[in-house]
Amino acid sequence: MAGLNTQVAPAIVILGQGSLTTARCLQQIYAQATIYGLQGRVQGADQDYSTFGDLLRSLYQRGTPIIALCAAGIVIRSLASLLGEKGSEPPVLAVAEDGSAVVPLLGGLSGVNQMARDIAAALGVAAAITTSGELRFGTCLLNPPQGYALADLEQGKRFVSDLLAGEPVRIEGQAPWLAQAQLPASDAAQRTIHVGHLARPASRDELLIHPRSVVVGLASGDLQTIRDALQQAGIAQASLACVLADERAMTDTRLHAAAQALGVELRFAARPDDVAGMVGAALPEARLQCQGEVVIAVAPAPVEVTQIGRRRGRLAVIGLGPGAAELMVPAVKAELARAEDVLGYETYVRMAGPFRDDQVLHCTDNREEMQRARHAFELAARGRSVVVVSSGDPGVFAMAAAVLEALHESTNPDWHAVDLEILPGVSASLATAAQAGAPLGHDFCVMSLSDNLKPWSIIEKRLDLAAQADLVLAFYNPISKARPHQLGTALDVVRRHRGADTPVVLGRDIGRPGQTLRVVSLAQLVPEMVDMRTMVLVGSSTTCTFERPDGGQWVYTPRWYGAKP
Ligand code: SAH
Known about the structure:
alpha/beta, Rossmann fold, single chain
Protein backbone atom coordinates (compact mmCIF):
# COMPACT_ATOMS: atom_id res chain seq x y z
CA MET A 1 0.00 0.00 0.00
CA ALA A 2 2.63 2.51 1.04
CA GLY A 3 4.60 1.79 -2.09
CA LEU A 4 1.56 2.17 -4.30
CA ASN A 5 0.40 5.48 -2.96
CA THR A 6 3.71 7.23 -2.92
CA GLN A 7 3.90 6.57 -6.67
CA VAL A 8 0.64 8.36 -7.36
CA ALA A 9 1.29 12.09 -7.59
CA PRO A 10 -0.63 13.97 -4.89
CA ALA A 11 -3.34 16.54 -5.56
CA ILE A 12 -2.85 19.91 -3.86
CA VAL A 13 -6.25 21.52 -3.40
CA ILE A 14 -6.61 25.24 -2.68
CA LEU A 15 -9.61 27.49 -2.09
CA GLY A 16 -8.08 30.95 -2.41
CA GLN A 17 -5.37 32.91 -4.21
CA GLY A 18 -3.46 33.37 -0.95
CA SER A 19 -2.64 29.64 -0.81
CA LEU A 20 -0.97 29.44 -4.19
CA THR A 21 2.49 30.31 -2.85
CA THR A 22 2.34 27.55 -0.25
CA ALA A 23 0.98 25.16 -2.91
CA ARG A 24 3.88 25.92 -5.26
CA CYS A 25 6.28 25.35 -2.38
CA LEU A 26 4.76 21.88 -1.86
CA GLN A 27 5.14 21.21 -5.58
CA GLN A 28 8.88 21.40 -4.97
CA ILE A 29 8.61 18.17 -2.95
CA TYR A 30 6.07 16.51 -5.26
CA ALA A 31 7.03 17.74 -8.72
CA GLN A 32 4.25 15.83 -10.51
CA ALA A 33 1.55 17.02 -8.10
CA THR A 34 -1.37 18.89 -9.64
CA ILE A 35 -2.59 22.09 -7.99
CA TYR A 36 -6.40 22.39 -8.13
CA GLY A 37 -7.74 25.93 -7.72
CA LEU A 38 -11.35 26.95 -7.03
CA GLN A 39 -12.85 28.45 -10.16
CA GLY A 40 -13.31 32.21 -9.92
CA ARG A 41 -11.17 32.43 -6.76
CA VAL A 42 -7.79 31.18 -7.90
CA GLN A 43 -5.83 32.32 -10.93
CA GLY A 44 -2.88 30.32 -12.20
CA ALA A 45 -3.56 26.86 -10.70
CA ASP A 46 -2.80 23.78 -12.83
CA GLN A 47 -6.47 22.85 -12.94
CA ASP A 48 -9.76 24.47 -11.96
CA TYR A 49 -12.58 22.86 -10.02
CA SER A 50 -16.04 24.09 -9.15
CA THR A 51 -17.12 22.05 -6.09
CA PHE A 52 -14.65 21.31 -3.29
CA GLY A 53 -16.53 18.28 -1.90
CA ASP A 54 -17.00 16.62 -5.28
CA LEU A 55 -13.34 17.08 -6.15
CA LEU A 56 -12.12 15.68 -2.82
CA ARG A 57 -14.39 12.64 -3.00
CA SER A 58 -13.39 11.78 -6.54
CA LEU A 59 -9.66 12.13 -5.72
CA TYR A 60 -10.10 9.97 -2.62
CA GLN A 61 -11.98 7.27 -4.53
CA ARG A 62 -9.25 7.15 -7.15
CA GLY A 63 -6.65 6.67 -4.39
CA THR A 64 -4.93 10.01 -5.05
CA PRO A 65 -3.04 11.43 -2.04
CA ILE A 66 -4.71 14.71 -1.05
CA ILE A 67 -3.05 17.78 0.43
CA ALA A 68 -5.80 20.31 1.15
CA LEU A 69 -4.80 23.85 2.08
CA CYS A 70 -7.73 24.60 4.35
CA ALA A 71 -9.25 23.79 7.73
CA ALA A 72 -9.05 20.11 8.72
CA GLY A 73 -12.79 20.15 9.50
CA ILE A 74 -13.78 21.02 5.94
CA VAL A 75 -11.77 18.07 4.64
CA ILE A 76 -13.24 15.62 7.14
CA ARG A 77 -16.81 16.78 6.48
CA SER A 78 -16.27 16.42 2.72
CA LEU A 79 -14.95 12.87 2.96
CA ALA A 80 -17.16 11.73 5.85
CA SER A 81 -19.53 9.67 3.70
CA LEU A 82 -16.61 7.62 2.30
CA LEU A 83 -14.77 6.81 5.51
CA GLY A 84 -16.24 3.37 6.21
CA GLU A 85 -13.27 1.14 5.69
CA LYS A 86 -9.82 1.54 7.16
CA GLY A 87 -6.79 0.19 5.36
CA SER A 88 -7.53 1.08 1.78
CA GLU A 89 -7.28 4.83 1.79
CA PRO A 90 -4.81 7.30 0.29
CA PRO A 91 -2.96 9.77 2.52
CA VAL A 92 -5.06 12.88 3.27
CA LEU A 93 -3.53 15.95 4.93
CA ALA A 94 -4.71 19.41 5.87
CA VAL A 95 -2.13 22.18 5.63
CA ALA A 96 -2.79 25.69 6.96
CA GLU A 97 -3.17 28.19 4.09
CA ASP A 98 -0.06 30.06 5.17
CA GLY A 99 1.93 26.85 5.63
CA SER A 100 2.17 27.24 9.40
CA ALA A 101 0.67 23.83 10.30
CA VAL A 102 0.54 20.31 8.85
CA VAL A 103 -2.10 17.83 10.02
CA PRO A 104 -2.09 14.23 8.75
CA LEU A 105 -5.76 13.15 8.75
CA LEU A 106 -6.14 9.81 7.00
CA GLY A 107 -4.00 7.08 5.49
CA GLY A 108 -1.88 6.02 8.46
CA LEU A 109 -1.09 2.78 6.64
CA SER A 110 -0.24 4.45 3.36
CA GLY A 111 2.44 6.75 4.70
CA VAL A 112 0.51 9.90 5.67
CA ASN A 113 2.76 10.54 8.67
CA GLN A 114 5.85 10.36 6.51
CA MET A 115 4.29 12.82 4.06
CA ALA A 116 3.41 15.09 6.97
CA ARG A 117 7.02 15.02 8.17
CA ASP A 118 8.33 15.72 4.64
CA ILE A 119 5.94 18.64 4.16
CA ALA A 120 6.63 19.98 7.66
CA ALA A 121 10.37 19.88 6.98
CA ALA A 122 9.90 21.79 3.70
CA LEU A 123 7.75 24.43 5.43
CA GLY A 124 9.97 24.64 8.50
CA VAL A 125 7.22 23.63 10.96
CA ALA A 126 6.39 20.56 13.07
CA ALA A 127 3.97 17.89 11.85
CA ALA A 128 0.96 17.25 14.09
CA ILE A 129 1.41 13.46 14.42
CA THR A 130 -1.37 11.96 16.54
CA THR A 131 -1.15 8.21 15.82
CA SER A 132 -0.71 6.66 19.27
CA GLY A 133 1.42 3.67 18.24
CA GLU A 134 3.66 5.91 16.23
CA LEU A 135 4.03 8.40 19.07
CA ARG A 136 4.68 5.73 21.69
CA PHE A 137 7.05 3.54 19.68
CA GLY A 138 8.49 6.13 17.30
CA THR A 139 7.45 4.02 14.30
CA CYS A 140 4.28 2.70 12.69
CA LEU A 141 4.59 -1.06 13.28
CA LEU A 142 1.83 -1.74 10.77
CA ASN A 143 3.69 0.09 8.01
CA PRO A 144 7.15 -1.54 7.87
CA PRO A 145 9.69 0.16 5.60
CA GLN A 146 10.31 -0.67 1.97
CA GLY A 147 11.69 -4.18 1.63
CA TYR A 148 9.29 -5.63 4.22
CA ALA A 149 5.63 -6.63 4.08
CA LEU A 150 3.14 -7.16 6.88
CA ALA A 151 1.52 -10.64 6.71
CA ASP A 152 -1.87 -9.78 8.20
CA LEU A 153 -3.14 -6.27 8.85
CA GLU A 154 -6.15 -7.17 11.02
CA GLN A 155 -4.07 -9.32 13.30
CA GLY A 156 -1.43 -6.59 13.35
CA LYS A 157 -3.91 -4.04 14.68
CA ARG A 158 -4.74 -6.32 17.62
CA PHE A 159 -1.05 -6.87 18.23
CA VAL A 160 -0.33 -3.14 18.38
CA SER A 161 -3.17 -2.52 20.83
CA ASP A 162 -1.77 -5.29 23.06
CA LEU A 163 1.57 -3.48 23.04
CA LEU A 164 -0.09 -0.15 23.76
CA ALA A 165 -1.80 -1.85 26.71
CA GLY A 166 1.62 -2.63 28.15
CA GLU A 167 2.57 -6.09 26.82
CA PRO A 168 6.34 -6.52 26.36
CA VAL A 169 7.73 -7.75 23.04
CA ARG A 170 10.65 -9.72 21.63
CA ILE A 171 12.10 -9.54 18.10
CA GLU A 172 12.84 -12.72 16.15
CA GLY A 173 14.90 -12.32 13.00
CA GLN A 174 16.42 -9.17 11.55
CA ALA A 175 14.42 -5.96 11.99
CA PRO A 176 17.05 -3.22 11.63
CA TRP A 177 14.47 -0.40 11.36
CA LEU A 178 13.25 -1.22 14.87
CA ALA A 179 16.67 -0.68 16.42
CA GLN A 180 15.79 2.98 17.11
CA ALA A 181 12.17 2.30 18.09
CA GLN A 182 11.09 2.66 21.71
CA LEU A 183 9.52 -0.80 22.10
CA PRO A 184 8.79 -2.39 25.50
CA ALA A 185 11.42 -5.08 24.81
CA SER A 186 11.95 -8.10 27.01
CA ASP A 187 13.63 -11.45 26.29
CA ALA A 188 10.91 -13.19 28.27
CA ALA A 189 8.07 -11.55 26.31
CA GLN A 190 5.13 -13.62 25.02
CA ARG A 191 4.55 -11.28 22.08
CA THR A 192 7.01 -11.49 19.20
CA ILE A 193 7.73 -9.51 16.08
CA HIS A 194 8.85 -12.24 13.69
CA VAL A 195 10.73 -11.33 10.51
CA GLY A 196 11.06 -14.30 8.15
CA HIS A 197 10.43 -15.51 4.61
CA LEU A 198 8.67 -18.82 5.33
CA ALA A 199 4.98 -19.17 4.51
CA ARG A 200 2.92 -19.88 7.62
CA PRO A 201 -0.07 -18.36 9.34
CA ALA A 202 0.83 -15.82 12.00
CA SER A 203 0.28 -17.10 15.50
CA ARG A 204 -2.03 -15.15 17.78
CA ASP A 205 0.75 -13.46 19.68
CA GLU A 206 3.01 -12.38 16.87
CA LEU A 207 3.39 -9.66 14.30
CA LEU A 208 4.57 -11.55 11.22
CA ILE A 209 6.64 -9.54 8.74
CA HIS A 210 8.06 -10.95 5.52
CA PRO A 211 11.34 -9.52 4.22
CA ARG A 212 11.46 -9.17 0.44
CA SER A 213 14.56 -11.31 0.29
CA VAL A 214 13.57 -13.95 -2.27
CA VAL A 215 14.23 -13.96 -6.01
CA VAL A 216 12.76 -16.53 -8.38
CA GLY A 217 14.94 -17.26 -11.42
CA LEU A 218 13.75 -18.98 -14.55
CA ALA A 219 14.33 -19.25 -18.29
CA SER A 220 10.63 -19.10 -19.11
CA GLY A 221 7.31 -19.89 -17.48
CA ASP A 222 4.11 -18.37 -16.22
CA LEU A 223 2.34 -17.37 -13.00
CA GLN A 224 1.59 -20.98 -12.09
CA THR A 225 5.25 -22.00 -12.52
CA ILE A 226 6.33 -19.33 -10.04
CA ARG A 227 3.52 -19.94 -7.53
CA ASP A 228 4.13 -23.69 -7.55
CA ALA A 229 7.86 -23.27 -7.00
CA LEU A 230 7.33 -20.91 -4.05
CA GLN A 231 4.72 -23.18 -2.54
CA GLN A 232 6.90 -26.27 -2.81
CA ALA A 233 9.76 -24.41 -1.17
CA GLY A 234 7.40 -23.21 1.59
CA ILE A 235 8.17 -19.55 0.91
CA ALA A 236 5.68 -16.73 1.51
CA GLN A 237 4.66 -14.96 -1.69
CA ALA A 238 5.04 -11.63 0.12
CA SER A 239 8.77 -12.35 0.46
CA LEU A 240 9.22 -12.38 -3.29
CA ALA A 241 11.31 -9.33 -4.26
CA CYS A 242 11.44 -9.87 -8.01
CA VAL A 243 11.50 -12.43 -10.80
CA LEU A 244 14.75 -12.82 -12.71
CA ALA A 245 14.44 -14.23 -16.24
CA ASP A 246 16.68 -15.04 -19.14
CA GLU A 247 17.08 -11.88 -21.24
CA ARG A 248 16.04 -13.83 -24.33
CA ALA A 249 12.56 -13.98 -22.79
CA MET A 250 12.31 -10.18 -22.56
CA THR A 251 9.22 -9.98 -24.79
CA ASP A 252 7.48 -13.03 -23.25
CA THR A 253 4.04 -11.70 -22.35
CA ARG A 254 3.28 -14.59 -19.96
CA LEU A 255 6.24 -13.64 -17.80
CA HIS A 256 5.25 -9.98 -17.72
CA ALA A 257 1.68 -10.91 -16.80
CA ALA A 258 2.99 -13.20 -14.04
CA ALA A 259 5.20 -10.51 -12.50
CA GLN A 260 2.34 -8.04 -12.66
CA ALA A 261 -0.04 -10.47 -10.97
CA LEU A 262 2.53 -11.04 -8.23
CA GLY A 263 3.09 -7.28 -7.89
CA VAL A 264 6.85 -7.54 -8.39
CA GLU A 265 9.35 -6.36 -10.98
CA LEU A 266 10.54 -8.60 -13.78
CA ARG A 267 14.32 -8.32 -14.27
CA PHE A 268 16.55 -9.86 -16.90
CA ALA A 269 20.07 -11.23 -17.10
CA ALA A 270 22.20 -13.20 -19.51
CA ARG A 271 22.02 -16.99 -19.02
CA PRO A 272 25.39 -18.33 -20.20
CA ASP A 273 24.70 -21.93 -19.12
CA ASP A 274 22.00 -22.77 -16.58
CA VAL A 275 19.46 -20.84 -14.53
CA ALA A 276 21.35 -21.49 -11.27
CA GLY A 277 24.41 -19.85 -12.81
CA MET A 278 22.37 -16.82 -13.84
CA VAL A 279 20.76 -16.42 -10.39
CA GLY A 280 24.00 -17.11 -8.53
CA ALA A 281 25.82 -14.42 -10.47
CA ALA A 282 23.09 -11.87 -9.69
CA LEU A 283 22.84 -12.78 -5.97
CA PRO A 284 26.23 -14.04 -4.77
CA GLU A 285 25.14 -13.82 -1.09
CA ALA A 286 21.98 -15.87 -1.49
CA ARG A 287 21.25 -19.51 -0.74
CA LEU A 288 19.95 -21.26 -3.89
CA GLN A 289 17.41 -24.03 -4.10
CA CYS A 290 16.12 -25.70 -7.27
CA GLN A 291 12.44 -26.49 -7.86
CA GLY A 292 12.40 -28.20 -11.25
CA GLU A 293 13.32 -25.61 -13.88
CA VAL A 294 13.01 -22.79 -11.37
CA VAL A 295 15.79 -21.61 -9.05
CA ILE A 296 14.85 -19.84 -5.83
CA ALA A 297 17.40 -17.55 -4.19
CA VAL A 298 16.97 -16.57 -0.54
CA ALA A 299 19.14 -13.61 0.44
CA PRO A 300 20.08 -12.81 4.06
CA ALA A 301 18.29 -9.41 3.87
CA PRO A 302 15.78 -7.60 1.60
CA VAL A 303 16.99 -7.51 -1.97
CA GLU A 304 17.74 -4.18 -3.67
CA VAL A 305 15.78 -5.00 -6.83
CA THR A 306 17.51 -2.38 -8.99
CA GLN A 307 20.79 -4.24 -8.40
CA ILE A 308 19.44 -7.54 -9.80
CA GLY A 309 20.08 -7.89 -13.55
CA ARG A 310 18.39 -5.15 -15.52
CA ARG A 311 14.83 -4.34 -16.44
CA ARG A 312 13.22 -4.16 -19.84
CA GLY A 313 13.55 -0.66 -21.21
CA ARG A 314 10.46 1.34 -22.05
CA LEU A 315 9.81 3.90 -24.74
CA ALA A 316 6.56 5.85 -24.72
CA VAL A 317 5.68 8.31 -27.43
CA ILE A 318 3.21 10.67 -25.82
CA GLY A 319 0.87 13.43 -26.91
CA LEU A 320 0.61 16.42 -24.58
CA GLY A 321 -2.63 17.69 -26.08
CA PRO A 322 -2.79 21.29 -27.26
CA GLY A 323 -1.23 22.74 -24.10
CA ALA A 324 -3.65 23.10 -21.20
CA ALA A 325 -2.95 20.60 -18.40
CA GLU A 326 -6.58 19.50 -18.16
CA LEU A 327 -6.52 18.38 -21.79
CA MET A 328 -3.63 15.99 -21.14
CA VAL A 329 -4.84 12.39 -20.73
CA PRO A 330 -4.10 10.78 -17.33
CA ALA A 331 -2.02 7.97 -18.91
CA VAL A 332 0.34 10.60 -20.32
CA LYS A 333 0.68 12.29 -16.93
CA ALA A 334 1.53 8.94 -15.33
CA GLU A 335 4.07 8.24 -18.06
CA LEU A 336 5.76 11.61 -17.48
CA ALA A 337 5.99 10.81 -13.78
CA ARG A 338 7.82 7.53 -14.43
CA ALA A 339 10.11 8.89 -17.17
CA GLU A 340 13.85 8.92 -16.62
CA ASP A 341 14.69 10.50 -19.98
CA VAL A 342 12.54 12.99 -21.86
CA LEU A 343 13.25 13.79 -25.49
CA GLY A 344 11.65 16.33 -27.76
CA TYR A 345 11.56 19.76 -29.27
CA GLU A 346 12.43 22.19 -26.49
CA THR A 347 9.09 24.04 -26.50
CA TYR A 348 7.17 20.78 -25.98
CA VAL A 349 9.57 19.42 -23.37
CA ARG A 350 9.07 22.62 -21.39
CA MET A 351 5.30 22.28 -21.83
CA ALA A 352 5.49 18.74 -20.37
CA GLY A 353 7.20 19.91 -17.13
CA PRO A 354 7.83 20.58 -14.32
CA PHE A 355 10.35 17.76 -13.93
CA ARG A 356 12.26 16.36 -10.98
CA ASP A 357 16.01 16.82 -10.71
CA ASP A 358 16.61 13.13 -11.45
CA GLN A 359 14.86 13.30 -14.83
CA VAL A 360 17.18 13.90 -17.78
CA LEU A 361 15.92 16.25 -20.49
CA HIS A 362 17.23 15.94 -24.06
CA CYS A 363 16.02 18.95 -26.01
CA THR A 364 16.62 18.95 -29.74
CA ASP A 365 15.73 20.95 -32.81
CA ASN A 366 12.30 20.30 -34.31
CA ARG A 367 13.72 18.95 -37.55
CA GLU A 368 15.93 16.19 -36.15
CA GLU A 369 13.10 13.67 -35.86
CA MET A 370 14.82 10.46 -37.00
CA GLN A 371 17.94 11.21 -34.98
CA ARG A 372 15.79 11.81 -31.90
CA ALA A 373 13.90 8.56 -32.48
CA ARG A 374 17.14 6.56 -32.70
CA HIS A 375 18.51 8.24 -29.60
CA ALA A 376 15.33 7.26 -27.75
CA PHE A 377 15.81 3.58 -28.67
CA GLU A 378 19.47 3.67 -27.61
CA LEU A 379 18.45 4.91 -24.16
CA ALA A 380 15.50 2.51 -23.81
CA ALA A 381 17.58 -0.49 -24.91
CA ARG A 382 19.81 0.20 -21.90
CA GLY A 383 16.82 -0.35 -19.62
CA ARG A 384 15.85 3.30 -19.18
CA SER A 385 12.27 4.57 -19.07
CA VAL A 386 12.14 7.01 -21.98
CA VAL A 387 9.48 9.45 -23.14
CA VAL A 388 9.36 11.19 -26.51
CA VAL A 389 7.01 14.18 -26.43
CA SER A 390 4.83 15.61 -29.18
CA SER A 391 2.21 18.29 -28.94
CA GLY A 392 -1.38 17.28 -29.64
CA ASP A 393 -1.41 13.65 -30.70
CA PRO A 394 1.94 11.93 -31.38
CA GLY A 395 0.49 10.11 -34.39
CA VAL A 396 -0.66 13.29 -36.16
CA PHE A 397 2.25 14.89 -38.06
CA ALA A 398 4.50 14.13 -35.10
CA MET A 399 6.98 11.74 -33.51
CA ALA A 400 5.14 8.38 -33.42
CA ALA A 401 5.66 7.60 -37.11
CA ALA A 402 9.34 8.59 -36.93
CA VAL A 403 9.85 6.31 -33.93
CA LEU A 404 8.22 3.38 -35.72
CA GLU A 405 10.22 4.06 -38.86
CA ALA A 406 13.46 4.00 -36.87
CA LEU A 407 12.47 0.67 -35.33
CA HIS A 408 11.39 -0.78 -38.67
CA GLU A 409 14.78 0.11 -40.17
CA SER A 410 16.72 -1.39 -37.27
CA THR A 411 17.95 -4.98 -37.00
CA ASN A 412 19.14 -4.46 -33.41
CA PRO A 413 17.30 -7.09 -31.26
CA ASP A 414 17.69 -4.87 -28.18
CA TRP A 415 15.65 -2.15 -29.87
CA HIS A 416 12.92 -4.63 -30.81
CA ALA A 417 12.81 -5.92 -27.21
CA VAL A 418 11.96 -2.44 -25.86
CA ASP A 419 8.48 -2.03 -24.36
CA LEU A 420 7.14 0.48 -26.89
CA GLU A 421 3.84 2.26 -26.40
CA ILE A 422 2.16 5.20 -28.13
CA LEU A 423 -0.08 7.27 -25.86
CA PRO A 424 -2.62 9.49 -27.60
CA GLY A 425 -3.35 13.15 -27.04
CA VAL A 426 -5.97 15.69 -28.06
CA SER A 427 -4.91 16.85 -31.50
CA ALA A 428 -5.05 20.55 -32.43
CA SER A 429 -7.87 19.99 -34.95
CA LEU A 430 -10.04 18.37 -32.29
CA ALA A 431 -9.23 20.94 -29.61
CA THR A 432 -9.98 23.78 -32.07
CA ALA A 433 -13.16 22.12 -33.32
CA ALA A 434 -14.45 21.66 -29.77
CA GLN A 435 -14.04 25.36 -29.04
CA ALA A 436 -15.84 26.35 -32.24
CA GLY A 437 -18.69 23.87 -31.77
CA ALA A 438 -18.68 20.81 -34.04
CA PRO A 439 -17.24 21.73 -37.44
CA LEU A 440 -15.84 18.18 -37.78
CA GLY A 441 -19.26 16.65 -37.05
CA HIS A 442 -19.36 14.90 -40.43
CA ASP A 443 -16.68 13.41 -42.74
CA PHE A 444 -13.47 15.41 -42.78
CA CYS A 445 -9.99 15.34 -44.21
CA VAL A 446 -6.81 16.15 -42.29
CA MET A 447 -3.83 17.55 -44.20
CA SER A 448 -0.49 19.12 -43.49
CA LEU A 449 0.24 21.94 -45.93
CA SER A 450 3.98 21.67 -45.35
CA ASP A 451 5.97 20.50 -48.36
CA ASN A 452 9.09 19.78 -46.31
CA LEU A 453 8.52 16.04 -46.55
CA LYS A 454 6.25 15.71 -49.62
CA PRO A 455 6.07 17.42 -53.01
CA TRP A 456 3.77 20.44 -53.36
CA SER A 457 2.13 18.84 -56.40
CA ILE A 458 0.76 16.06 -54.15
CA ILE A 459 -0.62 18.64 -51.73
CA GLU A 460 -2.43 20.44 -54.55
CA LYS A 461 -3.82 17.20 -55.95
CA ARG A 462 -5.12 16.04 -52.56
CA LEU A 463 -6.61 19.46 -51.81
CA ASP A 464 -8.38 19.47 -55.13
CA LEU A 465 -9.86 16.00 -54.63
CA ALA A 466 -10.79 16.53 -50.97
CA ALA A 467 -12.45 19.85 -51.74
CA GLN A 468 -14.28 18.25 -54.65
CA ALA A 469 -15.45 15.43 -52.35
CA ASP A 470 -17.04 18.10 -50.12
CA LEU A 471 -15.07 17.00 -47.05
CA VAL A 472 -14.49 19.47 -44.22
CA LEU A 473 -10.76 20.33 -44.38
CA ALA A 474 -8.42 20.55 -41.38
CA PHE A 475 -5.06 22.15 -42.22
CA TYR A 476 -2.02 21.61 -40.01
CA ASN A 477 1.21 23.54 -40.73
CA PRO A 478 -0.80 25.97 -42.89
CA ILE A 479 2.00 28.47 -43.46
CA SER A 480 5.52 29.34 -42.35
CA LYS A 481 8.13 32.03 -42.92
CA ALA A 482 9.95 29.68 -45.30
CA ARG A 483 6.82 29.15 -47.42
CA PRO A 484 4.67 32.28 -47.20
CA HIS A 485 2.85 31.97 -50.55
CA GLN A 486 1.59 28.41 -50.54
CA LEU A 487 -1.49 28.96 -48.36
CA GLY A 488 -2.81 31.46 -50.96
CA THR A 489 -2.35 28.87 -53.70
CA ALA A 490 -4.02 26.22 -51.55
CA LEU A 491 -7.03 28.45 -50.92
CA ASP A 492 -7.37 29.11 -54.67
CA VAL A 493 -7.69 25.36 -55.19
CA VAL A 494 -10.33 25.07 -52.43
CA ARG A 495 -12.34 28.04 -53.83
CA ARG A 496 -12.82 26.14 -57.09
CA HIS A 497 -15.16 23.82 -55.22
CA ARG A 498 -16.49 25.79 -52.20
CA GLY A 499 -18.82 28.77 -51.92
CA ALA A 500 -17.62 32.20 -50.78
CA ASP A 501 -19.72 32.03 -47.59
CA THR A 502 -18.27 28.69 -46.42
CA PRO A 503 -17.40 29.08 -42.71
CA VAL A 504 -13.70 28.86 -41.79
CA VAL A 505 -12.47 28.42 -38.20
CA LEU A 506 -9.04 29.79 -37.26
CA GLY A 507 -7.75 28.54 -33.89
CA ARG A 508 -4.43 30.01 -32.73
CA ASP A 509 -2.53 28.70 -29.68
CA ILE A 510 -5.63 26.78 -28.63
CA GLY A 511 -5.32 25.55 -25.05
CA ARG A 512 -2.32 27.82 -24.49
CA PRO A 513 -1.96 31.28 -22.97
CA GLY A 514 -3.33 33.97 -25.31
CA GLN A 515 -5.40 31.57 -27.40
CA THR A 516 -7.66 33.08 -30.08
CA LEU A 517 -10.56 31.67 -32.05
CA ARG A 518 -12.02 33.37 -35.14
CA VAL A 519 -14.76 32.44 -37.54
CA VAL A 520 -14.57 34.03 -41.02
CA SER A 521 -15.98 33.20 -44.43
CA LEU A 522 -13.88 31.64 -47.14
CA ALA A 523 -14.20 34.91 -49.10
CA GLN A 524 -12.78 36.92 -46.16
CA LEU A 525 -9.92 34.52 -45.46
CA VAL A 526 -6.47 35.85 -46.37
CA PRO A 527 -3.11 34.21 -45.53
CA GLU A 528 -2.23 37.18 -43.24
CA MET A 529 -4.83 35.88 -40.74
CA VAL A 530 -2.87 32.65 -40.37
CA ASP A 531 0.54 31.69 -38.96
CA MET A 532 2.30 28.45 -38.09
CA ARG A 533 0.58 28.31 -34.68
CA THR A 534 -2.85 28.34 -36.31
CA MET A 535 -5.23 25.50 -37.09
CA VAL A 536 -7.43 26.11 -40.14
CA LEU A 537 -10.79 24.31 -40.44
CA VAL A 538 -12.62 24.93 -43.75
CA GLY A 539 -16.30 23.92 -43.70
CA SER A 540 -18.12 21.77 -46.27
CA SER A 541 -21.31 22.72 -48.15
CA THR A 542 -23.40 21.74 -45.08
CA THR A 543 -21.33 23.50 -42.40
CA CYS A 544 -23.34 26.30 -40.82
CA THR A 545 -23.07 28.96 -38.12
CA PHE A 546 -25.33 30.82 -35.68
CA GLU A 547 -24.93 33.47 -33.00
CA ARG A 548 -23.80 32.69 -29.47
CA PRO A 549 -24.95 34.83 -26.56
CA ASP A 550 -21.38 36.11 -26.05
CA GLY A 551 -21.31 37.64 -29.54
CA GLY A 552 -19.27 34.85 -31.10
CA GLN A 553 -20.57 32.13 -33.37
CA TRP A 554 -21.20 28.44 -33.09
CA VAL A 555 -20.00 26.42 -36.09
CA TYR A 556 -21.21 22.91 -36.81
CA THR A 557 -21.48 20.37 -39.59
CA PRO A 558 -24.65 18.31 -39.24
CA ARG A 559 -24.52 14.53 -38.99
CA TRP A 560 -26.77 14.07 -42.02
CA TYR A 561 -25.95 14.70 -45.66
CA GLY A 562 -28.18 15.42 -48.66
CA ALA A 563 -31.82 15.85 -47.62
CA LYS A 564 -32.43 16.32 -43.89
CA PRO A 565 -33.78 12.98 -42.55
N1 SAH B 1 0.87 16.58 -33.35
C1 SAH B 1 0.24 17.89 -33.40
C2 SAH B 1 0.40 18.57 -34.74
C3 SAH B 1 1.80 18.92 -35.11
S1 SAH B 1 1.89 19.80 -36.63
C4 SAH B 1 -1.23 17.72 -33.05
O1 SAH B 1 -1.75 16.60 -33.08
O2 SAH B 1 -1.88 18.73 -32.74
C5 SAH B 1 1.96 21.48 -36.04
C6 SAH B 1 0.72 22.25 -36.44
O3 SAH B 1 -0.37 21.88 -35.61
C7 SAH B 1 0.85 23.75 -36.31
O4 SAH B 1 1.46 24.33 -37.45
C8 SAH B 1 -0.59 24.19 -36.16
O5 SAH B 1 -1.22 24.20 -37.41
C9 SAH B 1 -1.20 23.02 -35.40
N2 SAH B 1 -1.23 23.24 -33.94
C10 SAH B 1 -0.54 22.57 -33.00
N3 SAH B 1 -0.86 23.02 -31.76
C11 SAH B 1 -1.78 23.98 -31.93
C12 SAH B 1 -2.53 24.80 -31.03
N4 SAH B 1 -2.37 24.70 -29.71
N5 SAH B 1 -3.42 25.67 -31.56
C13 SAH B 1 -3.59 25.75 -32.89
N6 SAH B 1 -2.93 25.01 -33.78
C14 SAH B 1 -2.02 24.13 -33.32
